[in-house]
Structures are given as structure tokens and as C-alpha cells.
Write a structure and sequence with these properties.
154 residues; alpha/beta; 7-stranded mixed β-sheet
């Protein structure tokens, strides 16, 4: 079974979220549970400074008809199609404010014969937990904690 591109994975996951009664956007990649927004950002790469700026702002534009409004985002998941840098992982892991709101998924390995993908998810986001379960059950993607973080969590 061939795993779809990242944007198709997110679109498929959003369909699963709708079936759970969670609100999703047709145009943006967010899921709303209760009054909390869980945002998905997929990228090839990003500089640590840019990730920090986006994560600390924790805002997202929501399209409503022909206009937009800005909302506070409770959680952001970064979906990388290329392995994120060690510096980026450390920047999130070492900052409690960022690590409680930000998850990092290295999906660059998802397209290999045995897809085992590093992750950093110290959030309590039920949506991100379901995203991991969805990828494991539907596409056979296994997640493991990023090796460089194991020593810190003991």
C-alpha cells in the first residue's frame, strides 16, 4: 500500500475527525475540539527561529465566507517531509512553553519499506494522539520518540 502525500494524509485525517464530530476546515489544515484549535503545518524545512516565532504567536487565520479572522491556536503539529534539524528539535524540546503546544513529526521516513518516523509530541492534544493512531492503523506508519530526546525524558 502506497502512503499518500502529506497533504492527502491530512485531508484524509480531517475526514476521520469529522466523523468524530470535531470541526474541520475545508480550506485550512486545522481541527477544532471544543474551543481549542489544533493546527497542522506541513513543510519541507523551517529554520528554528521561524518555528519559534510562529509557535510563540500561536495564531491562525480562519476563513469565514470571503473574509478571515485570526484565532488563538492551542496546539500546532509540524509535519516535515525532510528530517528536521537537530537544532530545531532541541529548540522545541528545551522550551517548556513550546513543547507543551508544539508537536514535530518527521514523515521523511514514512515512504520507506518499513516506515518508522521520529516524533516529538509532549502535548496533551487528543487530536495529535488520534493523528498518530490514524497513521499507524490506516497506513502502517510507526512512531518513535526522537532518539536525542530519550535521555531527557528519563
Amino acid at each position: 500500500m502506497t502512503i499518500p502525500r502529506v497533504w492527502d494524509l491530512v485531508r484524509s485525517f480531517k475526514s476521520e475527525c469529522e466523523s468524530r464530530g470535531w470541526e474541520v476546515s475545508e480550506h485550512e489544515d486545522w481541527v477544532k475540539t471544543g474551543n481549542k484549535y489544533h493546527n497542522f503545518l506541513w513543510t519541507r524545512t523551517v529554520r528554528p527561529a521561524a518555528l519559534k516565532k510562529i509557535a510563540i504567536e500561536h495564531k491562525c487565520a480562519i476563513k469565514e465566507g470571503v473574509s478571515y479572522r485570526v484565532v488563538d491556536v492551542a496546539y500546532t503539529a509540524w509535519l516535515f517531509s525532510e528530517a528536521p534539524s537537530e537544532e530545531l528539535i532541541q529548540a522545541v524540546a528545551e522550551n517548556p512553553e513550546l513543547s507543551q503546544r508544539t508537536a514535530i513529526y518527521d514523515l521523511s521516513c514514512a515512504y520507506s519499506k518499513r516506515p518508522v518516523c521520529p516524533k516529538l509530541n509532549l502535548t496533551d492534544s487528543s487530536v495529535f494522539q488520534e493523528f498518530e493512531n490514524f497513521l499507524e492503523k490506516k497506513w502502517g506508519v510507526e512512531f518513535k520518540k526522537a532518539q536525542r530526546l530519550l535521555a531527557k525524558e528519563v
